[in-house]
Protein 1
Amino acid sequence: MADMGRSRSIGRHGKDGRGKRVRWLVVALAAAATVTGSLAATLHGGGTPARARAQAGRPFHHPGVLDTRAQLDAVRRHLAAGDEPWTEAYAAMRASKYASMGYTAKPVADVKCPFDGKPGRGCTEEREDAIAAYTQALMWYFTRDEAHAEKAVQIMDAWSGTIERHSDDNAGLQTAWSGSSWARAAELVRYTYQGWSRPQVRRFRTMLRTAYLPEVEHAWPDRNGNWDLAMTDAAIGIAVFLDDRPAFDRAVKRFRGRVPAYFYLASDGPVPQAPPGGTLKTPAQLRTYWFDQNRYVDGLGQETCRNFMHVGYALAATAHIAETAWHQGVDLWSENSDRVRAALDFHAGYQLGDKAPPWLCGGRIETNMGPDVEVAVNHLRNRMGLKVPEAERLAVHQRPAGTDDLFVAWETLTHADNP
């Protein structure tokens, strides 16, 4: 059940070659044939072939991975007026290494990421380069300085011309973190900037289709739930960028199964729901999976007694998935508002300093949550009119929310009070 922490640094190694592009093309063609076939549509929740064809015909809204043009235009207006917290959040982003015009990508062919921070190749570099591409894309949108768009393209092209695979134990999680940021960056650049050529875009699409999507669609039901949620975050963003309706629907289905198995509500019964497709069934097995917690209350997370950092990953990924689906006309927020609302306030209160009672994790909690709540607070409060007072306090306390250097970046800037 182990996975990497926020700040573990890994090494790098890589190569390039014409052969991998041929392999990518073969895999891409096979993947396209699979996801459009009627058998695949049925197996992956697409329903009948007729229904799958109807779903495939629905256009996606672009840009629509986490951010929309309307949201970013609202931020531009706030920046022009010098409004807060956006002005301070923009200044923090602009001052970061990710916004530097001197930023240089460090792509590798095989990103090799083992468990527990053991030496690997390219893990930190890939995650940071993906965040840099997204940061440069945001800088381009807010400043209209094409040099930032070109820098984003430069970073994305470097990776699409190099990477072949992800390997070792943490491949799924690594691919999830970096894939989430790649999809956001690519979506924004492709639909707001004219300088990314069609061949370059096609090569990047092939990269996401072959080196990322298969990894993030792999099921890990018995691992800690932040894995499934982070992987689904990447999968839904990649699906939108690829205009892949079956992949989008698979991500939505996976989300609907995992969120109720990660965040507890009393309506679930005396024990939490088991992760779909896994081997954990009995109350004793679930108790062990929930890090030996034996009292379940609204908002408790599967990894609460592990540490709040990993719960924060899950909260952020849940919000990202629901937000991207919302932009595409699927309201996952309403389906899960009670769980997300309870989880936000439950953890935010302790993160802000409330003392843990003896029944919660034996009275010992590790409150190391990152900048993970802005997207959810914005939707619940500003779109749904729901109160999340502790989470609102935490959001304000953390502002301007920066980046966790994994897959969360600049969400005060993009989502604070931005319905």
Protein 2
Amino acid sequence: MSSSSPAVHPPAAPALPPTGTPPSRLVALDVFRGLTVMAMILVNNPGDWGHIYAPLAHAQWHGCTPTDLIFPFFLFIVGVSIVYALDSARRTAPHGPLLRRIARRAAVLFGLGLFGSLFLDWDLSTVRIPGVLARIALVFLGCGVLFVKTTWRQQAILLAVLLVGYNVLLQLVPVPGFGPANLEPATNLGAWLDRLLLGEAHLWKESKTWDPEGVLGTLPAVGTGIMGLLVGQGLRRTSLEAAGRVAWLFVAGGAALLLGLVWNSWFPINKSLWTSSYVLYTGGIATMSLAALYWLCDVQGYRRGIKPFVVFGVNAITVFFLSGLIARGLNRWQVTGAGGSPTGLKQWLYETLFVPVFPDPYLASLAGALACVLIWLGVLWVMYERRIIIKV
């Protein structure tokens, strides 16, 4: 973790750790992060947004598709990573400098999110303030401070308070100007608060009246990070053998998943609202997924075929940030398309390279997304081999 600006650390990309990796580093965590970011690149870059296979699209409102698992997985990973990055320091170093490091990194992540929203527009009056990187920054800040200053029991209690309290706010508190509490996109309490604090000009441009990464929804998103904190601390328990840790993770993850499904009956699973049932459901799946990877990679020492995921995992924020900027730039770069009309370079490349080869528009769109993942895999592979890791 560096100070206030991105930095390149040439010696920081070692070869894949050998079998029997010490508990100070989890191969499974790099693999899980890499899988998550690869999925994020895949669903964010279809060849044609009008032709997307259902599992690669978000749920319309209530419900959860495989795509809706990606962002909570990343926030869960943030929580686990904090434990492995800060556990030794919080025990031996003064807390003041450590908290300042956490705040600086959160500020840089938030700033990168604003830069991404401003890129090629540079209009502060309409820049979207919430967003993926902004939420990652706030979750990292909240979970970092909690990890340094609280025990795991206090974190577990706070998780329960956040989830129950958020449920009460959204389903019992009347919405000013609209009446009774509700869970509709533009009239729920969170949407009202976003408009009050940020103004419609600074919200998601697809709606203008609500934002899927809004202010109030960040509270349960911190809960997702706390679940990662608890799992990370469980993995570092020296009182349990590896098999015991894996069993503990599967039991805890399964219980969270089931509780999320039960809660869904009156507080529906919903990514945009980041409902409490969604936190438990996705956190449970994330816990069991990490448990399986931990058993496979760190306990059994399996290494074959995991390198593509590792190279994505060690430069996760870099590829997410740069892929968004490049896609936006390619969309703005106008070229002459079919029939002589101007079109964005990204669309032109898709129509030229993929549409003629794949008659099925859904398959062509998927092929375009997979090509994007493969291009970034090549770039990140070279960076990994040259020991280049960009940290913020």
